Amino acid sequence: MDENKEKDTKAEKTSAENIPEEITDAESENTLHSGETASSDDKSDINSIIEEYSEYEDKKAAENTDASESTDKSEVNGPEISDDDDFEDEPEEKHPPKPKKKKRRKKGNGRLIFGLIMTALIVAVAVFCAAFVLKFARDFVGIGKSSVEVVVEIPMNSGTADIADILANEGIIDSTYFFRFYSRIKGSDGTFVAGSHVLTPDMSYENIVHELQQGAVDTRESVDITFPEGIDLLDAAQKLEENNVCSASDFIREFNNSSFGFDFEKLVKVSAMKFYKMEGYLFPDTYTFYVEEDPKIVCKKIYRNFETRITPDIYARMDDLGLEFEEMLTMASMVQAEASSVYDMKHVASVFRNRLADPDNYPLLQSDPTRKYVEDVIKPNIEFPSKEMFKAYNTYEGAGLPPGPICNPGLDAINAVLYPADTDYYYFCANVDTGEVYYARTNEEHEANLVLAGIK
Q1: Which domain does 181 fall in, by range?
Q2: Is residue 177 a part of any domain in this protein?
Q3: Does 313 have pLDDT greater than 80?
Q4: How confident is residue 124, by pLDDT bands cut at 50, 70 and 90?
Q5: C-alpha distances in angstroms, 298 versus 230, 275, 315?
Q6: How far is CA 402 from the centre of its chain?
Q7: Residues whose CB is less than 8 angstroms from the CB of residue 420 and which lie 6 or more positions away in sequence, other chains included
């Protein structure tokens, strides 16, 4: 028994040595409270204390594990702040505003646009140059042009510029500049022979120059015909027929229906009330025609002369006065038929202008030659009589100017309309025998003048 007691005593000492201080204190407290010494009977209490200690260690280890996990989460997620927690906001750190960066222009787009513009410009220049070269080449060799023969007349003492203009008007060449340039570099200036030459538009410059350097090849008979101021188309056609140039009917038909591309042709008015479309456009002059000539060539020669006689100054003056071309030509034809001198032309023109400016008091121009034109020209030659046309041309019945000219006026009559005398006359009459013209401001003065002129 003593041995057993010693073993128990040793075991208790060993266990007591291994028990932590906290448990030892607890045991001592229990001992103090109980006032009793530990014995073998209390072994179960010690074992239970050891088991509690183990549970305590396990629980403590578990708490340490949870704390570490909580620490890990707080490190990852940051500390959790309760909505109810009171804390002071730390002032935000103010940073100076960042300077705005300047937008850089996109150089790529600018270069692209510039490149496109330059490309378009280069293409346009290339196209223009190509067209220029093609035009020169076509004219130079006569490619694709007509092979119809044209008799070209070269007047005496004509220079290269004059000849180039004639060739262009006849449709032989397109560019007078190219032809003059070619003639100069070939040394052909001054070598051309005056007279008639047969040419075709499809001839090359070389052949044209060669042909113009030869003698006149056309030996047909020619005739000079003078058309006086105030002649009408019907009388002009009769003159051509009488001189065996062409028939009157062929000339009338071609002159009123052909087109040769002259600038003045664009100004001609077309109206159902007009009798001859081109009355007034045969410029009074002396012309040279070949006997038995093609009516188209006759008409073209007359058209060309009219084109050259109506100068830019005439067009400019019409614009200043607000006159249309055919209005000017129609009034000029009436002035031409009424007066024979420049003085009277200007005064007669002033009477017509004054009446046209006051249509309420002077609705009718009352020009005798207009009534004569209806009786002598229109009525005998019109295919289907028209009372409306007769009335429109007769200024004793129709108001204002006639639908078109009644004859072919010269430059004096045209200038009289463009630069009329400054008068307040509204009437005039003329002595048929002496040609003297009387002017009046009132109807009473006019009635007196009619007696003086032998008309009443």
Answers
A1: 123-219
A2: yes
A3: yes
A4: confident
A5: 20, 21, 26
A6: 37
A7: 346, 347, 349, 350, 353
